[in-house]
């Protein structure tokens, strides 16, 4: 693959035969390949001990493709200052379903000093309070069969059990997903699951395993056939594992005193004691606005992020939502200028070179709405700040569900069945329809669902979205 590439495509300048495994990554989707793998590729030029073993728990498509390409894939950035580069950081890739003992061996190997995850929000099997959901089918399974896990949390517990049994130190375990306080959530989930079968193991994990918080940021759309075809013309070869992202990339990691975190700092990650502040700003500003844009943009008939943000009315409402309802509730964060950050986010959304589908951002919305927007809503209500734009965005999500139910289309969402039933029952009456959704405790905390100010803002917002669907601007 490498020899035939055009000269302008950068490629690993290190000897891949000398790489040693140091990281196990669970969930090698587009984001991992576009973000973390690029940081590690940089690190490997100086230190060969951090090669990635990529393990998929669900679909084997990506790992099969990566294996067929010896782990190599192309990363193309889009927009001003773009470049194309072959990433060599993934040394091995396989599916845990195909090779469960290989997965356990990799997770339990003393050489594995860092385990990272990008498994999407739902992969953590958390309940509405952010705790491991002991009634989740995968967790029920893993409690009964800790030796043959299904969930990512179960795999982590099984790998850590191996380390404890062998008397080797645990790896650092790092969530790179968009979860509030991702390190603490992951730690609590792993300890809670371990406690169900082995309290000694749970205590050992609590005492010895570090779960640094992280904030990851780089807009990475799914690699669609149009991108892969265009890249094939550019490279003269087909790369089905190729990914694209914007040029901007950021990885902020809690500055815990351990070898993997120091190594990631050398690779370009920002190490800080205030990851929570950075992560909350990103979750509420970038992710919150992204979701709001997706639901409202789809109501207006747009397909892509850059089109939706360029709609004068919608672009102005998203900017107001950030400026009036999100930024005022954020505590100061060292090294972050909130206004400049917000402007930067809006400019990044408008990058026409990134073909990011609104429908993709709308996947798993029932999981995203609570973490991206409802926390801000709750804070604003308590502080007497407005929730007009935030409630309209939540109402746009409800209408997104109602339209799917009417059209008979599927939803990519763990609550699909419940949502479609609710959507089918909706009649177009703002108060009645929003009340149906507010009954879903998995999405709306009961206290918030009962709040009269939120309920009336939601009804008004719902009416606005009905107008948008008819091509009118409220
Ligand atoms: P993707 O669909 O390409 O990959 C998702 C990965 O998660 C796949 O490897 C899949 O097998 C795995 N997965 C899904 N459900 C799982 C489950 N229940 N248990 C275990 N693994 C599971 O998506 P992506 O673009 O790689 O995004 C993944 C995550 O990365 C996001 O959910 C988000 O938390 C984070 N992220 C993405 C972006 C972005 O722009 N794409 C930006 C910042 C952060």
UniProtKB/TrEMBL annotation:
Span of domain Mannitol dehydrogenase N-terminal: 22-255
Presence of the UniProt keyword Transcription regulation in the record: no
Domain (Mannitol dehydrogenase C-terminal): residue spans on this chain: 275-462
Signal peptide annotation: none
Short name of any one Pfam family annotated for the protein: Mannitol_dh
UniProt keyword list: Oxidoreductase
Domain of life where this protein originates: Bacteria
Alphabetical list of InterPro entries matching this protein: 6-PGluconate_DH-like_C_sf, 6PGD_dom2, Mannitol_DH, Mannitol_DH/Oxidoreductase, Mannitol_DH_C, Mannitol_DH_N, NAD(P)-bd_dom_sf
UniProt protein name: Mannitol 2-dehydrogenase
UniProt lineage: Bacteria, Pseudomonadati, Pseudomonadota, Alphaproteobacteria, Maricaulales
